[in-house]
Amino acid sequence: MTSTEKKLTPWQEKLLNALVNKYENSATFRGENKLNQMFAVEPGKVFDGYGKGKDKTAVEEIAAFESEMESLQARGLIFIESDPKRPMQKEYLMLKADEGQVKQFYGILGRRNKREILKEQADMYRQYLGHHALLDRYCTHMLDEVENRLKVQKDSEGDLLKLLDAVLGNREDLLERELSMEVFGYSKQIEKHLMNSLITVLKKYGDTAQLLDGIEDENEERQILLGEYRIYMNPSVVYLKGYAELTFPGGHRVQVTPEVPLGFLSSALENLENIHIGVPTVMTVENLTSFHRMEDRNVLFIFLSGYHNTAKQQLIKKMGREKRVWQHFGDLDPSGFLILRHLRRGTGLPFEPVHMGAEELKTYAGYGIELSEDDRKMLENMRSEGEFPEVLQEMERLGIKVEQEIISLDLYRKRGV
To answer: What is the pTM of this model?
Structure first.
């Protein structure tokens, strides 16, 4: 708008933006219309209630609105269509503009042309092609949305692409807030603005069907997906308790005993050359409290922090070179059995549940928690697949779940008797 042109009023600005929106969503804009198309907006969409009886108390406001519309028409920017059946009574039916008029609105409004925005976004997606297979799939889809479907994407897409590129290319253990600082210079940027979009893309465009099989909880999905790229909410630590000797580069050996349990950062275990286990049984434990309570000198207990990413599964596979008994102790709930299934599939080892049977469910029913709707869905899915039939049938019958901490506490007390 030049300095000599009158500044638009709110009603005028609302109308011109509405007409631009109509144009940008039209066959004319897509190049599919050979006729000279008119674009129209009902006056009531600009001035709420216009034409619905004309409330007498709003006569002055209606007159002001009509005057502002007539001003636009006098400037050659719009056409006003009135009711031809009621020539003596001024009432607008439609506010119209043709393509030539609408194209003037961009400069008047200081609004960018949609085609310019689409071109910039297409160039942005092309910049990330060839970086990672998952990112290629996402960018190819988004290019179709931008170039063929002419859909303008959110302003946050640039940050999302930058974040995806960083996550997919990561080769070291990082905490979520460290990643956020490194990419954006603000520790809470991912958590506050991008986490949901990041997880959605990783889930939809990655090979995650088996990885997330049966997982309903969003926080568990987040933990599993980001863990695959070594991104963690908290430091990733593996705890061991029992008889084991770990050998690291340079011949450095670390002894673990029942009396001296140790925790190892996942990044340190990547360099592990060998692990010798001096007992016949290995038991993974779902929760840290129960891990600390468990005692058996013939068992090596492992706390892996819930679901197990690929790096932790590789550690267990190293233990699987020798024949031994494999056990898992988790919560007596659908998620506990999903963790067990995830562990079996990820390691290829025959883990069996312990202290997770129908008898324990009945024994500790007094500590039971009512199954949630999500629990019931997971339970139904697992039962349809025929896994863990006895305990899941009892869980469905009782309508409860039991957390393992009460069971491990009871086992600890009984040992002390």
So the answer is: 0.70
